[in-house]
Amino acid sequence: MIIKEVKIVTSDGIIEGDVKIEGNKIVKVGKNIEGNEDIIHGNGRLLLPGGVDNHVHIFKRYLKVPTSDTVRKSTIAAALGGTTTVIDFAFSDRSPNLEERIEQFKESFVNYSFHIFANDVTENLINAFKKGFKSVKFMMIEYAGLKSSLSGLIRINRVVKEFNGYVMIHAEDEELINSLAEGKRGDPKLHLLTRPEESELSAVLRARAIVDKGVIAHVSCGKTLDLIEGKLLGEVVLHHLILSKEVYDRKDSYLFVTSPPVRDPEEIWSRINKVFMIATDHNWFDRKVKEEHREFPDLVPGLPGVELRVPMIITEFIKRGLPLSLAVKLLSENPAKLNGFNKGKIKEGYDADLVVYNQGVKWRVSVDNTHMADWTPYEGYEVIGKPEVVIINGKVVVEDGEIKEESFRGELVKQSL
User: Fold this and answer.
1) Residues 6+ apart with CB under 8 A from 120
2) Can you tell me the distance from the alpha carbon of 294 to that of 292, in angstroms, rounded to the nearest whole number?
3) Which residues lie below 8 Å from residue 192, measured CB to CB, with a gap of 6+?
4) In 3D, which of 191, 297, 302 has the Cα closest to residue 255?
5) Over 90: is that where the pLDDT of 36 sits?
6) What pLDDT is stored for residue 350 in this prediction?
7) Rg (CA), the chain
8) Which of 9, 158, 205, 275 is the most buried (most CB within 10 A)?
9) Cα–Cα distance, 168 to 259 (Å, whole number)
10) What is the H or E stretch that residue 50 is in?
11) CA-CA distance, 56 to 215, in Å (whole number)?
């Protein structure tokens, strides 16, 4: 297969040319590539590396309120939005464990991998490392029955170093949150008020003192990026870059609840050069589920986003006059590199996960033209461009913005760290 006449977006800039694919690999990048293979005519469209979303919660059934999706539905949405690899989560010492999650994801439309939830070092965690899953998700708040301690984080950090992995940290100060929330009920805005930015900053300072190689997940305030610079990496998610705390003044504010809450996107945009990658923290909850939990503290945090990350971030970069070379680093190259995937770059020898992106169209986000929940937090947002052709593992799976290979399955990807 040869993709002709595209503007190839790399981390070094944009080059005009062609890309040749053999099997599931990119074998040549250059100009005027000839051959008898199938031709995709790019006609000056952008060619992006397939998106790598480092942080999704798909078919989450282990909390009191399950997500409303299936693995198949969320991963089809991912592909339609130009994301070709997602990284979800499994637990080291409770269900769903790694084997159970791998079984559930056999119906995934895109490639997939897993971070491992753990609050201490156990034999199961060591075994996960040996199987090629070397990133640990450490919650600094109680989660799914797991209680955390800094001594547990110290032990995890030590073992992660031995296996050349990394720690992904949910940084919130549980004691501060609980103290501020004590005795309070009602308005969803209390979720924002009891989780101030100091909650994140306090937790980040402690993690910074312990962790050698780590990522702060879903950074919600600009000051965090200042604190971790040169020490830890910052992952930012879509909603913290698009939505502001004003959503808590809406009558339907319960729909927009996330942990940590959205605050001031411009604080993060002004520090975009300190961001390492952009993910989603995708959680597909239909409207009815959110409406059944509309009073603090009985709220359901999480927003659908896996389909919109690539087009909305490309849009923001264009509108803000930021280089698309940086966008593909944050959306694809950096998360792939961090996890040891042979993905995220349009370069000879890399996996052929690619997106032909039509930058010449504009459209507005609506529940009717997206494929996630039965509502969207980004209703009315104007997007510049759309994924037109999506190639996963060398196969065209989306064509003209529609699923082409209904029976396609992505592959499990392990971390080569």
Assistant:
1) 149, 152, 155, 156
2) 6
3) 245, 248, 261, 263
4) 302
5) no
6) 98
7) 21
8) 9
9) 15
10) none
11) 15
